[in-house]
């Protein structure tokens, strides 16, 4: 990498990426996108924090991931806990979870994190926040257990962002801010 490329890559560095994952057409699997859309809708996102809806894009998200120092992944996470239970994992536990416990798109997330590691561009810190899904079947509606847990998940995302030193201020919908994620996902009740 020449000096110009290195300077360009440093200039594009994202301090904190909050990345919603999942397929909105598979019921509870779309909870990551829903939670990130609600954060965008309800909070003023501070400089240095980027919200993104990654869906099931897998390796297509590599540039975004490698440009980020800290990453909060938001997704459905299978555990033995009841549906709608909040899950928080960090460090090595995240890689174990994406290998064994994420929803149907897990292979793409495993590939994404492995690729970032292979090119020595893994973020400094990766945290996984999510809810235990009830149903991951073809549907645009989420189960009542997951829908009931979304507010708790949004609050967990906000707490996590604030624990990294960013101030999240709740703002009313009428603030008139441009909300690209919300604009794309509001039709799915997010």
Query: Beta fraction of the residues?
Result: 15-25%
Oligomer: single chain
Total strands: the figure is 7
Rg on CA atoms, Å: 16 Å
Secondary-structure content class: alpha/beta
String of helices and strands: HEHEEHEEHHEHEH
Helix proportion: 25-40%
Tally of DSSP helical segments: 7
N-to-C span: 41 Å
Give start-end ranges of low-pLDDT stretches.
Answer: 1-12, 182-190
Note the main sheet. 5 strands, mixed
What value does the average pLDDT take?
83
Shape: globular
Spatial strand order of the main sheet: 3-1-4-6-5
What secondary-structure arrangement, pairings included, does this model have?
Layout: H1 3-11, E1 14-21, H2 31-42, E2 43-44, E3 49-55, H3 62-66, E4 68-76, E5 86-90, H4 92-100, H5 106-118, E6 125-131, H6 144-163, E7 169-170, H7 180-185
Parallel strand pairs: 1-3, 1-4, 4-6
Antiparallel strand pairs: 2-7, 5-6
Helix pairs in contact: 2-6, 4-5
What would you say this structure looks like, in words?
- By secondary structure, the protein is an alpha/beta fold.
- It has 7 helices and 7 strands; from the N terminus they run αβαββαββααβαβα.
- The chain has helices at 3-11, 31-42, 62-66, 92-100, 106-118, 144-163, 180-185, and strands at residues 14-21, 43-44, 49-55, 68-76, 86-90, 125-131, 169-170.
- It has a 5-stranded mixed β-sheet, with helices on both faces. The chain has a two-stranded antiparallel sheet with strand order 2-7.
- Helix 2 crosses helix 6.
- The longest helix has 20 residues, at 144-163.
- The chain is globular and about 40 Å long.
- Mean pLDDT is 83; it is low at 1-12 and 182-190.
